[in-house]
Amino acid sequence: MKVQINSVHFDAGQPLLDFIQQRLNKLETFFDRITEGEVILKVNNKDGIANKTVEFKLMVPGNTLFCEEDAPTFEAATDACYEAMRRQLVKHKEKLVNY
Description:
- The protein has one domain: Ribosome hibernation promotion factor-like (Double Stranded RNA Binding Domain, 2-Layer Sandwich).
- 39% of the residues lie in helices and 32% in strands.
- 20% of the residues are buried.
- The chain has a 4-stranded mixed β-sheet with strand order 1-2-3-4, with helices on one face.
- The two termini are 25 Å apart.
- It is elongated and about 45 Å long.
- The protein is of the alpha+beta class.
- This is Ribosome-associated translation inhibitor RaiA.
- InterPro entries: RHF-like, RHF/RaiA.
- It holds the Pfam family Ribosomal_S30AE.
């Protein structure tokens, strides 16, 4: 899977990029026909605790799956987005098999 990781208004460190890549690679175990992905990392200027946002966009044949999560850290937001995307991929795969 070809993945593009963008960080908005900051430079993401290599450990964070490796962590995100590891999570995306685990998603391929649930659905192996993911063609490409895009990850956007943002730091929000909100006054709340959850001021880091991670967005996943995965392109699968015939559809685009999207997830956006806020958390205090990028790792926590990535884990939350991973879980949401995992559920979407499993549901998408079930629809293809039952169709």
